[in-house]
Amino acid sequence: MPKIKQPVRTPHIDMTPMVDLFSVLLIFLLLTTSFRPQEAAPIDTPNSVSEKQAPDNDIMTIFITKDSLVFFNFDNGKDTSTHFRSKLLQKMGEQYKIEFKPAELDKFEKMSSFGMPIKNIQTWLNTIDSKERDKLQIGVPTDSTDNQLAWWVRMARLTNPGAEVALKGDAETPYMVVKKIMDLLQENKVNKFNLVTNLMKDEVTMKDMPNE
Amino acid sequence: MAELIVEDKGKKGGKRRPKKHSTRIDMTPMVDLMCLLITFFMLTTAFSKPKVMVITMPEKDQTDKPKDAPQIAANRTLNILLTGNDQIFYYMGMADPKKPPLPELVKSDFSKDGIRKILLLRNKDLFTKIAQYRDNRLTGKIDVADTTADNEIKRMKKDDKHGPIVLIKADEKAKYKDIVNIIDEMAICNIASYAIVDMSPVEAEMLKTAPK
After folding, report:
1. Across the strands, what pairs with A65?
2. pLDDT tens, per residue, chain B with 212 residues
3. Distance in Å, alpha carbon of B3 to nearest chain A alpha carbon
4. Fewer CB atoms near the end CB (10 Å): N or C, chain B?
5. Facing A175 at nearest CB: one of B51, B55, B170
6. Which residue is closest to A191 within chain B, CA to CA?
7. Measuring CA to CA, how many Å separate B72 from each of A51, B82, B161?
8. What share of chain B is helix, strand, coil (3-state, %, to 5)?
9. What average pLDDT does the segment A101-125 reach?
10. Nearest-angstrom CA–CA distance, A143 and A150
11. Which residues on neighbouring strands pair with residue B106, listed in sequence order?
């Protein structure tokens, strides 16, 4: 009996639903994305029940690592045309007699958190290799002889008077280090702190009320 | 997943028809690209925005003139001493070396039956009031906006005249997370008034002799 010859076709998979799904995912991610900012050092924040969200703009963040290193970050404000970051660097340059080129100011604007003595900041900005650059991140000096963090805070407050202060400390940082920085901020008339924490639900109801 | 399309050969001798091309589009490259994009966005997106805990500290006096400490009713005062290692010591009233005997330190911790029990017990009236108010809102007995409810709770806290006044004091061994945890505990237990203050030498001395 002769066999009927079928035309040779590879098995065909309909990919349309997959493409649909991918499109939906992609659009969702595109719309909701807010890029994770690069941070100078890993910081493991403590937990709290607070559900208040950190403000997106007009915020200066002070990072305190486990090893008590201090990093600083300052945003460009809601309207990026205000160029708060380059203005801040310019003011710091005037304070410490360092001349910054426009290209350097421009580059500084695109960077995120930083932490180094101000005299190293030009080297940091002009280093192209990111690994080399990270090696320069040794923390903002906060000792009383040359308290550069105080100047950063002061100048940031002058540049953007509406900026709030966020403290992002590692859970294991000694409290005395944090206290020193809080004191420094209070000397600069900052009395309201946003402590960055992880949300961890913990509710107490009347059932938990101990009986005498 | 490219598909092999075998075209039918026209019959010999028949009319020559224009070649029929398949209308199917190969979507593989598109899917590849989408996969890549989705992966990229997934990895760079920061989904959960950081949460913050707001604390407001009293303004520091720049003038160094000694000011009388605000009078606090001693019987309402609850002193919490933080000393690292998840250890808490607390005592009621005031430790005044001029008025012996010194109050005894009680050891506690951050667990459910630790300091929270003490705080809830001391703050029973206010906590019950706020819990009831929240419950009424949940069950729909009171129908108010979130801001109104927040203000109402704030007012309740302000009017509270019986709850404890908690003084939080930390020594050099305390970690940042201890402070955050204890402030968090204040929020959980609806404590109306609390403050972070410096530890007095008497208290440091008391800690040394405290039961370990």
Report:
1. none
2. 455 555 555 455 556 777 777 777 778 888 888 899 889 888 887 766 778 888 888 877 655 555 555 666 777 888 888 887 778 888 887 777 666 677 777 888 887 778 888 888 888 888 888 888 888 888 887 777 888 888 888 888 878 777 788 888 888 888 888 888 888 888 888 888 888 888 888 888 887 777 66
3. 6
4. C
5. B170
6. B57
7. 31, 21, 12
8. 40, 15, 45
9. 84
10. 10
11. B90
For residue B184, the chain A residues in CB contact (below 8 A) are: 47-50, 197, 202
* A179:B170 CB<8 A: yes
Whether this model's ipTM surpasses 0.85 comes out as no
Other CB atoms closer than 10 Å to residue A109's CB: what's the count?
16
- Residue B20 CB neighbour total at 10 angstroms: 9
Going by C-alpha positions, the residue among B208, B10, B120 that lies closest to residue A205 is: B120
Cα atoms in the 13 Å half-sphere on the side-chain side of B108: 23
CA distances (Å), B58 to each of A62, A156, A190, A193, in order? Answer: 20, 22, 10, 11
Distance of residue A211 Cα from the nearest chain B Cα, in angstroms: 8
| Residue ranges of domains in chain A | 59-199
Q: DSSP characters for chain A? A: -PPPPPPP-------HHHHHHHHHHHHHHHHH--BPPP-SS---PPEE---EEPPSSSEEEEEE-TT--EEEEE---SSGGG-HHHHHHHHHHHHHT-PPPHHHHHHHHH---B-S-GGGHHHHHH--SHHHHHHT------STTS-HHHHHHHHHHHH-TT-EEEEEE-TTSBHHHHHHHHHHHHHTT--EEEEEEEE------GGGPPP-
Structure tokens given for A76 = 């460009």
Q: Tens digits of per-residue pLDDT, A129-141?
A: 878 888 888 888 8
Cα–Cα distances (Å) from B30 to A15, A31, B25, B35, in that order, read 11, 20, 10, 9
Note the pLDDT tens digit of each residue in A76-96: 877 777 788 888 888 888 888
CA A211 to chain centre: 45
CA distance A144 to A141: 9
The closest of A58, A25, A128 to B45, measured between CA atoms, is: A25
Which CATH fold topology does B74-123+163-209 show?
Answer: Nucleotidyltransferase; domain 5 (3.30.420)
Give dist(CA A61, CA A171) in Å, integer: 16
